[in-house]
Amino acid sequence: MGRETISEIEYFARALKAPRIRDAAARLAEQAREAGWTHEEYLAAVLSREVSARESSGAELRIRAAGFPGRKSLEEFNFDHQPSLKRDTIAHLGTGSFLTEAKNVVLLGPPGTGKTHLAIGLGIKAAHAGHRVLFATATDWVTRLQSAHQLGRLPQELVKLRRYGLIIVDEVGYIPFEQDAANLFFQLVSSRYEHASLILTSNLPFSRWGDVFGDHVVAAAMIDRIVHHADVITLKGSSYRLKNSGIDTLPSARPENTAE
Length: 260
Ligand SMILES: Nc1ncnc2c1ncn2[C@@H]1O[C@H](COP(=O)(O)OP(=O)(O)OP(=O)(O)O)[C@@H](O)[C@H]1O
Ligand SMILES: [Mg+2]
Description:
Elements: H1 3-15, H2 19-35, H3 39-57, H4 59-65, H5 87-94, H6 97-100, E1 104-108, H7 115-128, E2 133-137, H8 138-150, H9 154-162, E3 166-172, H10 179-192, E4 197-202, H11 209-213, H12 216-228, E5 230-234
Parallel strand pairs: 1-4, 1-5, 2-3, 3-4
Helix pairs in contact: 1-2, 2-3, 4-7, 8-9, 8-10, 10-12
The structure holds adenosine-5'-triphosphate and magnesium ion (MG).
């Protein structure tokens, strides 16, 4: 292969953040010429090096197992739309040090302000840093805990969940829970307290969580544990979904009803 082509491949591999392609391209080209591979066979061999390296590093598997509703990265997040949010705060969380310290992150704010986006972005960083991650909505977590409870296996389930370095609970507040949900949730929070991290997102300020959980005493005890070691980030403004739509407010975005 010509020098120029090799350096072109090196450039493309860097741009794709695919170092194994860079390493394998020239070496496999030799092999391909000797063994008379087709172009397709050569391309497949090069790509397979990158894919198997990624899979064995496990990050990709952990990302797939996490159950994210979509892929969103911190790099894609537009901070210009969220001027009160410091890039440094998110960049620091992105290093994953909060996970090793078993700290929590709470993302509050009105609809469409990027809570789920940031939660997924942080989850993906966590997976890259080697942590197992599980993402679900608050409603789905309650269903999961309720089924374990009904089978008499709640303690075992909580132990199992503690093996995940990060659990993401999305959308606390959109759907109110029944009282046994408050108790189940409390057990999830207290079983992780000072052991493993949680990321929670909510459209409601903490003062309204008592209504959501239908139990002010349990909600207060739960919030106390969550925020003891936590970064609480409040996102503001209008929905990113409505950007360029000509609509500037949603009915639920009135300050008295939201976490803003
Ligand atoms: N600052 C931003 N930069 C880039 N994309 C953004 C930003 N904020 C939101 N988005 C995008 O807008 C959409 C809505 O954001 P997201 O789902 O994170 O909102 P949310 O705060 O979770 O809202 P909800 O409370 O309705 O669940 C997503 O596609 C997300 O990627
Ligand atoms: Mg959301």
